[in-house]
Design goal:
With 145 residues, the chain is mostly beta strands. 0% of the residues lie in helices and 48% in strands. It has a four-stranded antiparallel β-sheet with strand order 1-2-3-4, with no helix packed on it.
Length: 145
Amino acid sequence: MKPTPPLAAAKRAALAVVLFGEGGWVSEDRRRGLPIPLGGLRIINVSNPAAPSEVGSYDTPGDAWGVAVAGAYAYVADGLMGLRIIDVSNPAALREVGFYDTPWSARGVAVAGDTAYVADGDGGLVILRFLSHRVYLPLVLRNRP
């Protein structure tokens, strides 16, 4: 099967994307040398794929490598700045509600229920259970010898 040409192309570097409802969450890399500051989380309305529009953004302190969305929260794997938790219930006013400083460099994240799985580069797999969105109980900090 041959894919169709893209309906729209991003004008910024993107490292990860998650589709949820009519919005798309994109994590961006600030290290591309572009004239505008990049990094963080962007919420893109893709209800009309021919004309996507940004409806919200949050500049994380690190390099956003990956994102997962669960409920009203986006979980951003933010490189050397660990896991950032962003309240996305109001896309026009995104705010950080918590973070966990991982041992190495958070590169990817998946969330299932009250558990986050963070790919932490040389730090291995970090598994966190949320007691609330401000308290984290590390279950596994490393999974390698």
